Amino acid sequence: MKTIKLNKIILLALGLVVFNACVQDDDFDTPNVDVTDPVITGNIIDIDAVIGNLAQSGEDIITFEDTNNFMEGYVISSDEGGNFFEELVLQDKPENPTAGIVVQVDVNPLFTIYDFGRKVYIKLDGLSVAVDNGVVQIGRREGNNLEKIAASQMSETILRTSEVATIVPLEVSISDFSNDLESLYIRLSDVQFNRDDVLGDNPKTFAAEDTDQFDGERVLESCTSSSSVIFSTSTFSDFKSLLLPANRGSVDGILTRDFFDEFYTIYINSPEDINFDNDVRCDPIELSCGLADTTGTNNLFEDDFESQSTNSLISGNGWTNFIEAGSEGWEAYTQTGTNSSQGISARVGSFNSGDASTVAWLITPEIDLDANTGVTLNFETSNSFSDGSTLEILFSNDWDGTEAGITSATWGIVTDAYVTQDSDFFGDWFESGNVDLSCGSGQIYIAFKYVGSGESDFDGTYELDFVSIDAQ
């Protein structure tokens, strides 16, 4: 859908100007409460059948003509709070839905007529369906583009009924995300916003920071797994200036894709869809001693990976190379060119692996902080467009040294170590800094943990080299 996407980008600025003008006035007309159920004289089909027609066609966009088909669905979006604009999101059932779709409509607001939970029928003849930005949508075809249903055609195309159902959120986990859940009203339980967004002296708003353009994107993380998702809020929403809640709990919203179809994201209709009633956060413990001025001469552990066999998993020298999920582990590699290795380096990545999830650990031998003073950690990292994947530097005082005990051990974050970012040039190597570990105690292990987003055609790779742990 490259043509559709380019057209959308070109029109975005104009659309946002109109959006800004439209959403500022909350004095909407009162909807007509007397609804006469429409008489449907054609064939009633479900949303899944519409999506199936597109998939079976093998085309980027298809148009319904002379079918006499009507698609039924329930409204799960609301533009009352300004977080949705000129679109209706429908799902097939009020409870336990299996399919959702977006209907593009050149009208604002829509909630006064098509309110949350309202059952509607969409007259399909004359409409087209396409995958736009990774999400199945319905509108009117203009060449190879999908345009919005005109205001003059809305009432004869989108037929509302008298039924307003109670929408029951579908409870899912972030790790469950797939195309099958797109455009459904879901609930994420036991989640919280990342501590960097809500704690400290400058907690963030939903979408009113200087760096927010079009959408404010915040990290929503699970308290029961290592999963996270981007939580998006329009910079034109009525609640953009509210501070994010710092507690933890559940979020009800619509799962979709970001504007460039690079990752999953969730949008809410209103801040009331956030129920953070637990004031005990699940933040990891941290080892934060800052950066040391000097590096000791007593080397406790080091590896430049030159003794490793390329294209084989890292082994020996006390390393524990553990694949928690998927098929990819840390392996030795060498490469020349723009994205060159430093001789032989360690690399991990889930790109094109076909794995639904990738979690890989590379853990050092035990380091005794009590028996040594001035302990520091140094390493270098590079990436090949890390994209949706992450690399964390962790530590544990209670790991028993076995692979079976890795996931049950307590792992904290070594906060002061710099790890290359996706925004860094992929051909460069970046030093961690001389990371001070001296404020820790006991026997610890240092882990390099890679987590893919579950989209193996999108996740990139990380490279690691020159790992050194020293003491005075």
End-to-end separation in angstroms reads 59 Å
User: What is the general shape?
Assistant: elongated
Radius of gyration over C-alpha positions, nearest whole angstrom: 26 Å
Share of residues in helices = under 10%
Beta-strand residue fraction: 35-45%
The total count of strands amounts to 31
Low-confidence runs: 1-25
What would you say the CATH architecture of the largest domain is? Answer: Sandwich
Class by helix and strand content?
Answer: mainly beta
Instruction: Sketch the major β-sheet.
Output: 10 strands, mixed
Q: How many distinct helices?
A: 4
- CATH class descriptor name of the largest domain: Mainly Beta
Integer average pLDDT: 90
Number of domains: 3
CATH third-tier fold name of the largest domain: Jelly Rolls
Keywords: Signal
Domain DUF5689: 63-274
Signal peptide: 1-23
Protein name: DUF5689 domain-containing protein
What this model shows, in words?
Residues 1-23 form the signal peptide. This is DUF5689 domain-containing protein. Keywords: Signal. Residues 63-274 form the DUF5689 domain. The chain has 472 residues and is mainly beta. It has 3 domains: 2-164, OB fold (Dihydrolipoamide Acetyltransferase, E2P) (Beta Barrel); 170-278, OB fold (Dihydrolipoamide Acetyltransferase, E2P), CATH 2.40.50; 286-471, Jelly Rolls (Sandwich). The protein has helices spanning 2-23, 47-57, 151-157, 195-198; strands at 43-45, 61-63, 69-75, 87-91, 100-104, 118-123, 128-132, 135-142, 145-147, 158-164, 170-172, 185-193, 215-222, 228-234, 248-257, 264-267, 274-278, 286-287, 298-303, 320-325, 331-333, 345-349, 359-363, 367-368, 376-384, 390-396, 412-414, 430-431, 435-436, 443-451, 461-471. The strands form 4 sheets. Strands 1, 2, 3, 4, 5, 6, 7, 8, 9 and 10 form a 10-stranded mixed sheet that branches. Strands 18, 20, 23, 24, 26, 27 and 30 form a 7-stranded mixed sheet that branches. Strands 19, 21, 22, 25, 28, 29 and 31 form a 7-stranded antiparallel sheet that branches. The model is unreliable at 1-25 (pLDDT under 50).
